[in-house]
């Protein structure tokens, strides 16, 4: 069995894969070039991919021997699930193991953006820290404020758990109401317009789908409070970058915390990278040693099970099962 791995994973994943077949790995510290992936796909029984590999219909059409695809990510918007379903190729991903780490990142970005950590860092680096100033870099409170979660899946709920410690009121907009989680976390189900209007901090935690693409557009940003923070830990294209630039420049919203951006990677002169009220990190949501190793190993377990014809430990539901939020129902 030939297993094609598009980037060297952390942890014990490669050893695990080697016990299941012959492993070919792209060894460079850059994403695998498309033409190399195209050369490898037809010879692969299993594809072990990263979230920035495009696994689309043309690629899958050439991969006649493929029996399993395993993405080392929870998000699978880089994979054409419809064609995989048509071909009966199970797709694995890495839910659960990254939930808490990603929620930490979301919370960290909210604090950093709302409390103007970037402005503080730049101030210090420019040698401007002189005397204590009563009006220096005034931000907005997180403790005791209202948090709006767009998406109330694993990560959204994990953020809500953190918010209770900060005595925040939690609103959420999602495809389905989740009565049990509401009771557990004291969160309130609202429509997207209500959430945007009422929240002091808005965190985007939905998967990228055709319905959520561009969901946070100019109108959504205008609906937010002038003092509000927007955090995106989901996927860049859910937020319209140009509209966000306008909103941050004109003060329609106060600040943004960005783990994912459109385009990704951004060119070095992308305006969002240079605004003082935009705190940007390079898609580090799940980036701790323990979590990335767990993701890599779960992705390897998915490959191994797929090659044996067994159910994958973490299989992506078929595209028709609608496991994700959509804009219409979020809008209420
Ligand atoms: C994922 O797994 O989809 C995350 O974006 C990785 O950090």
Structure overview:
The structure is a single chain. This protein is 35% helix and 14% strand. The strands form two sheets. The protein has a seven-stranded parallel sheet with strand order 8-7-6-9-10-11-12, sandwiched between helices. A five-stranded parallel sheet has the order 2-1-3-4-5. The longest helix is centred in the last third of the chain and has 19 residues, at 289-307. The chain contains 13 helices and twelve strands. It has 332 residues and is an alpha/beta fold. α8 links the parallel β7 and β8 (187-189). It has two domains: 2-96 and 289-322, NAD(P)-binding Rossmann-like Domain (Rossmann fold); 99-280, NAD(P)-binding Rossmann-like Domain (Rossmann fold, 3-Layer(aba) Sandwich), CATH 3.40.50. The chain is globular and about 65 Å long. α5 (99-114) packs across α7 (154-165). It has helices spanning 13-18, 34-40, 57-62, 81-87, 99-114, 117-125, 154-165, 179-185, 192-198, 218-223, 241-250, 289-307, 327-331, and strands spanning 2-5, 22-25, 46-49, 68-71, 91-92, 146-150, 169-173, 187-189, 201-204, 229-232, 255-258, 278-280. The model is unreliable at 322-329 (pLDDT under 50). The protein binds (2R)-2,3-dihydroxypropanoic acid (DGY). (2R)-2,3-dihydroxypropanoic acid (DGY) binds next to loops.
């Amino acid at each position: 069995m030939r297993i094609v791995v598009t980037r060297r994973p952390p942890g014990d994943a490669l050893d695990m894969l080697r016990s299941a077949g012959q492993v070919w790995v792209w060894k460079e510290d850059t994403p695998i070039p498309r033409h190399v992936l195209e050369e490898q796909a037809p010879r692969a029984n299993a594809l072990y991919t990263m979230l920035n590999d495009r696994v689309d219909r043309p690629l899958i059409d050439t991969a006649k021997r493929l029996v399993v695809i395993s993405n080392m990510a929870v998000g699978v918007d880089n994979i054409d699930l419809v064609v995989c379903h048509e071909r009966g190729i199970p797709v694995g991903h890495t839910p659960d193991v990254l939930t808490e780490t990603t929620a930490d990142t979301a919370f960290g970005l909210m604090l950093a953006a709302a409390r103007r950590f970037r402005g503080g860092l730049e101030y210090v680096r420019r040698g401007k820290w002189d005397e204590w100033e009563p009006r220096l870099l005034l931000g907005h409170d997180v403790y005791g404020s209202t948090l709006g979660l767009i998406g109330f899946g694993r990560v959204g709920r994990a953020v809500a758990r953190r918010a209770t410690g900060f005595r925040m009121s939690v609103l959420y907009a999602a495809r389905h109401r989740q009565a049990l989680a509401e009771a557990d976390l004291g969160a309130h189900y609202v429509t997207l317009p209500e959430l945007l209007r009422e929240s002091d901090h808005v965190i985007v935690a939905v998967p990228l789908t055709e319905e959520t693409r561009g969901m946070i557009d100019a109108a959504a940003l205008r609906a937010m409070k002038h003092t509000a923070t927007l955090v995106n830990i989901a996927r860049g294209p859910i937020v319209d970058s140009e509209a966000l630039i306008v909103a941050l420049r004109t003060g329609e919203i106060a600040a943004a915390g960005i783990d994912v951006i459109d385009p990704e990677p951004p060119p070095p002169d992308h305006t969002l990278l240079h605004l003082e009220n935009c705190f940007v990190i390079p898609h580090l949501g799940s980036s701790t040693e323990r979590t990335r190793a767990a993701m890599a190993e779960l992705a390897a377990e998915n490959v191994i099970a797929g090659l044996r014809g067994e159910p994958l430990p973490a299989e992506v539901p078929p595209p028709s099962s609608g496991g994700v939020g959509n804009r219409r129902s979020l809008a209420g």
